[in-house]
Specification:
single chain, 177 residues, alpha+beta, 4-stranded antiparallel sheet, two-stranded antiparallel sheet, 6 strands, 19% strand, globular
C-alpha cells in the first residue's frame, strides 16, 4: 500500500523529524496563523483542518516552516509566542507571553530563555532556516495526496527580489514595520 506524501495538499515528507514553528500563509501572501510542531506536522495540519476553529482553510496556499533545535522545547514555545507577536496573524487568539511594542520583545524573549545576540528581533528571526511548501490540488478542487518524497532543503526558496516574494527573508522584512 502506498503511503500518503501530502496532508491536505501539503507535501510534508521533508518535515519528518523536524521540530519548528509553522506559518499558514494565504493566497495574498499574508500570515494567517502561527503554530509549533514537535516533529509531527501531519497531525498538526490535520487537526487545524478538522477542528471547529479551522485554522487551515481552503484559502491557505503556503506552509512556511522555521526549523528549531529539537532538544529545547521551552525555546520552541517562547519562539512561537515571539513569532506570533511579530507577525500578528488574525487566526491566533488568546493571551500571549509578549506584550507592549516590538522594542520590548527582545528583553522578554531573553528573560524566557531565547539566546538573542542580534540587535533586533528581525535579525534574530533571520538566523533560522526556513522552507516554504506550496499547497497542491487538482483542477477538480481535491487536494493532492501523493507526490515525490522531499527533503527539508528541497523546499527552501530563493529570493526573487520582487514585490511579495515568498522567501523567508522577504516575509520577515514585510512585517518589520
Amino acid at each position: 500500500m502506498r503511503s500518503y506524501t501530502h496532508v491536505k495538499g501539503f507535501n510534508i515528507t521533508g518535515l519528518e523529524g523536524v521540530v519548528g514553528i509553522y506559518l499558514l500563509i494565504d493566497k495574498d501572501k499574508q500570515v494567517k496563523y502561527v503554530g509549533a510542531s514537535k516533529a509531527d506536522f501531519k497531525n498538526r495540519l490535520q487537526s487545524h483542518y478538522y477542528h471547529p476553529s479551522q485554522k487551515l482553510t481552503d484559502d491557505i496556499n503556503y506552509l512556511c516552516v522555521i526549523k528549531t533545535d529539537p532538544r529545547n522545547q521551552t525555546v520552541l514555545h517562547v519562539l512561537e509566542h515571539l513569532i506570533i507577536r511579530y507577525f500578528q496573524p488574525d487566526r491566533n487568539k488568546g493571551g500571549w507571553l509578549f506584550f507592549g511594542g516590538k522594542a520590548a520583545y527582545k528583553n522578554i524573549a531573553i528573560d524566557n530563555g531565547l539566546k538573542i545576540e542580534s540587535n533586533n528581533i528581525k535579525d534574530y528571526l533571520l538566523e533560522f532556516d526556513a522552507c516554504l511548501i506550496k499547497r497542491e490540488w487538482f483542477e477538480n478542487g481535491e487536494f493532492k495526496k501523493y507526490g515525490e518524497v522531499q527533503k527539508f532543503a528541497d523546499n527552501i526558496i530563493c529570493c526573487t527580489n520582487e514585490y511579495n516574494c515568498l522567501c523567508y527573508n522577504c516575509l520577515v522584512d514585510r512585517y518589520d514595520a
